[in-house]
Design goal:
The chain has 157 residues and is mainly alpha-helical. It has a domain of 107 residues. The protein is 60% helix and 0% strand. Helix 2 runs antiparallel to helix 3 and helix 2 runs parallel beside helix 4. The longest helix has 28 residues. It is elongated and about 55 Å long.
Length: 157
């Protein structure tokens, strides 16, 4: 691919909308062909300007971290249980509580941006796939927070 320099650069016109700018920037990044674009996953929250951060991104990461720690502890719990250790459950007790707290924080926080809402819904779907029982008691809270998130989007649109 040819490198852009002052001799072969094509000036970009001034763009008045964010959507138009992003589509032109994406087209330029893809070698100037907008049709060659593939879906691009959302950028991590840390890449967004400080004023635009949605708190749900850090809560998603906190839950994923807590869930990973619980999975490790549960595997050790299972191993010790198979060996007949009567205290095996103690290994996973605190990590289970931590991941449950992180899940509760996640479902009790309404996303404030459309990207946050998409990430929140996607994360909840991943959790549902892994452990459907987590949602036995969480449904009403999630509905309330979804409505709140949609209200947040209506205000910022």
């Amino acid at each position: 691919m040819a490198q852009a320099d002052s001799n072969n650069s094509t000036p970009m016109p001034v763009v008045s909308t964010r959507r138009r700018f992003l589509s032109q920037a994406a087209g330029a990044a893809a070698g100037g062909t907008a049709l060659a674009l593939a879906p691009i996953p959302p950028a991590p929250a840390a890449a967004a300007p400080a004023g635009l951060l949605d708190p749900v991104f850090s809560l998603i990461e906190a839950h994923r971290t807590a869930r990973a720690a619980y999975d490790v502890a549960l595997a050790e719990h299972t191993r010790l249980d198979r060996l007949g250790d009567p205290a095996a459950y103690l290994i996973s007790e605190a990590p289970f509580g931590a991941q449950l707290d992180a899940f509760t924080d996640l479902i009790e926080t309404a996303p404030t941006t459309f990207a946050g809402l998409k990430a929140w819904a996607s994360c909840l779907d991943e959790i549902r796939d892994a452990d459907e029982d987590m949602f036995e008691w969480a449904g009403p809270t999630m509905v309330v927070k979804l409505v709140e998130a949609l209200g947040n989007l209506a205000v910022t649109s």
